[in-house]
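Late entry, evening session. Most of the bench is empty. Finally got around to the prediction I had been postponing all week. Sequence below, unchanged from the version circulated by S.P.
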Amino acid sequence: MDWLSKRRIYQLFKYGWAESKAIASDSGKSRFTVFIQIVHAYRCYYIYSNQYRIKELWRLPQEEQAKIAIPIGLENKRRDNWVRENYRNWKFIRKWTDIKYEQSPSMQQKRKKAYTKEFNAGEGLIVQFNVHIHREHYLDGTIKLGKNVLLAKNVFIDYSGFLEIYDNVALSDGVVIETHSHVAGALTLKGKGTLRQTHLIIEEGVSVGSKAMILETVTHIGRHSRIGAGAVVRKNIPPYAVVIGNPAKVVGFVMNPEEVSAIEREYPEDQRISMEQFRKDYDRYFKSRIKEIRKFVNN
């Protein structure tokens, strides 16, 4: 029995006995009988004592109880499994983010192996100290790391949503990636705001400069693009683009269409980007805006 299971048993007896008093006065049953029913409901459905009282399950026949209690119990189990995973993740972070693992190549190798195993990363992972990879709010996000990924010092990655980082991506020191948000509105003011997950793909060969932020509004960063230091990325980035600033704007491309076309021929045909679309992006974001870009860069 792990720490959380023991805690649930403790809560069952502590709060279940308290809940049984209120239910007994309403149902006409003895307090002990009600308490046994609460324990039975927990064992059968994994439903907590306060849920048993709020849903007034003691008033219902067993079949009706099951219809209400089973979905609640499944959600309780899901959340408790998330808590276990979150606790284990924080233990991992507390241990492996320590700067002591910078002391020698052997210590660095231990940290690399730990992160590779923990997040099922591809071979060639490079990870420096104080790299946080974490998720929040009981969300069932996932993270996938490709080969030869660089996670420099002080990188923070939120995978409360869904994050895929392809091969040969470099995240410089202090980069922040977010994949969830709190939806604003009237309910938020009452403490019942809605959470929104996003699915972000960072394609092959992307380089992200120091202290850049990629916000949850972004779902796709095209391959071989370059994000400047301190940039705040709020929109998707086309392949081979160069972006800087807050909000981040495209100020150029790492190659012209002819050079990109030559690079793309090295990819399997079904994986190549559309050169027609690339030329449109090249004209739209760069050639047609050269004066505006010069002014933006000079400022």
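Two things to note before I forget:
Residues 215 and 268 are 31 Å apart (CA to CA).
The chain has a mean pLDDT of 92.
Will write this up properly tomorrow.
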